Structure formats: C-alpha cells, structure tokens
Amino acid sequence: MEEVSKLIGIISYLPDDPKIRKVRKDKLDKLLTQCEKLFNLPILIITQNWTKNDYDSMCNKHDNIFSPGPLPKLGITGARKLLRKVFLNETVYDYIILLDDDIQLVGGDGTRYLKQIDEHPDSFI
C-alpha cells in the first residue's frame, strides 16, 4: 500500500459584522488546531472577505496553512471552484480533504481516516 499525498482544503468567509466575524474566526481557529492535532497535513484556505490583518494573524498562528491570499466575496460555489482550481493547478498533492470553516471535528485520532484514503486512493471517503 503506497501512501498518497494529502492536503486539507477549507473555504472560509468572514462576515462584515464584527461580532459574527469574531465568532467565525474563533471557530476557524479551533478547526485549524483540530486539523493540526488530528491530521498534521498542510491546509489550503480560500480566504473570502478577510483583511490583511486577519490573514497575517492566522498564518502566524498556524504555520501549516497557505492561501492565494485575502480574496473578495466569492460565494460558496465560487469559493469551491477556486479551491478545486488551486488544488489541481497549483499543488502537487494527490488527495484533498474538503472542509468548511464552521465545522467541528470530533475524535481523538485521524490516522484511521488517513489510512482509509491510502487504502482506497481512487475513491471518495
């Protein structure tokens, strides 16, 4: 069994309202921490409506993330299309794990999930 190279892909949107924006940023920060703990994989984020400060502070806190940079509002479909395009055309990874910025991962160990990907490289998991 050959291990395939994996990447986490996240679409993120930060609303203009300061209170809601803080909640979304905190949720994303928690998700990134969970991803680091469970998977320890690089993370590609499509950052819609982020300021340069949002971008810099998140990149400084989580050194395994990368992004095309702060982007305008694209909408869910536009963000997913861009994530796919960047993944296919600008990375060398074999497999992408897709997440939204407002989900919560549960479980103590991501190795079983990653092993499933390696055992079924041409499948959806």
Give your account of this protein's structure.
The chain is α/β, with parallel strands linked by helices and 125 residues long. It has four helices and four strands, in the order βαβαβαβα. The protein has a four-stranded parallel beta sheet with strand order 3-2-1-4, sandwiched between helices.
Mean of the pLDDT scores? 90
Structural class comes to alpha/beta
Distance between the termini: 17 Å
Instruction: Please outline the major beta sheet.
Output: 4 strands, parallel
List how many beta strands DSSP finds: 4
Overall shape:
globular
Radius of gyration: 15 Å
Which runs of at least 5 residues are low in confidence (pLDDT < 50)? none
* Contiguous helical run count: 4
Helix content: 40-55%
What portion of the residues fall into strands of 2 or more residues? 15-25%
Order of helices and strands: EHEHEHEH
Strand order of the largest sheet: 3-2-1-4
Oligomer: single chain
